[in-house]
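Team,

Forwarding the record for the chain on the shared tracking sheet. I've put the sequence and predicted structure together so nobody has to dig through attachments.
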Amino acid sequence: MKHTLIRTVEEASEETFAGCGHGPVPAARRDRGAPPIYVDGVAIAESAIAAEAQNHAAGSGAEARAAAARALVVRHLLLRRAHELGLKPQPLADGHGREETPDEALIRQLLALEAPGEEPSEAECRRVYEASSARFSAPEIYEASHILLEAERPGASAWVSAHQRALELIEKLRLGADFAELARAYSACPTAAEGGALGQLTRGDLAAEFERPLLGLEPGAVAGAPIRTRHGWHVVRLDRHAPSRVLPFQTVAAAIAASLRERSAIAASARYVEKLAAAASIEGLSLMAGGAGR
């Protein structure tokens, strides 16, 4: 949330709104040709616009000034209406303990009161779900374990030796040896301490030359041949494999409703600001992005 860069009518002088609560200040120099901006005859300080412009990415200084001025005008219209209604700020804190400023709280309270948006129905949520069910899919996940046999020295013969040791472990596993025990005893990977377990993975987490044959196995199966990577030879086992699946509607209904609720609130807020602007006298600025001043 941004700093409070425009004060309410009650706090300002007859002539100028100042930024950040430091009192009236002379208007800063503006770009040549840029008109001064007034809301119902009261000027928006150029110093406040310049400070607010830092919060707006734009292709030019003029665009940044216009975006900042629009933000300040909208803030003024909302805060003025909140004071007309006699609202008192009741700041809320976010999950990190950061509390709203009084102006932020007033704007939130005002929009909740006069532009709350619509509560989505279950039918609307179901339409969204059925129209784009792929958006509500759980990713493919799998779990695997491996035993890494490194080449103990440079050269082809060391790779051959490591391959032979990997084959011997595969044979031991075929005869019933415990995979975790062999991993702890022979694996050169730090996962040896975990019995070779690689944890929960999604497609693409591992190198293709490792992942492709691994995912061709049935859960619980050990590959019949070692897999070579730049690290060495791997004895691999696919522990679990859950294909991607569409989540049930009830699992995602709350998230869909929250998204629709937010979208409706944004649209309602935009309409509300348009209504306030239509009832105000705004000079030197159009609240439509890219619009010319009037």
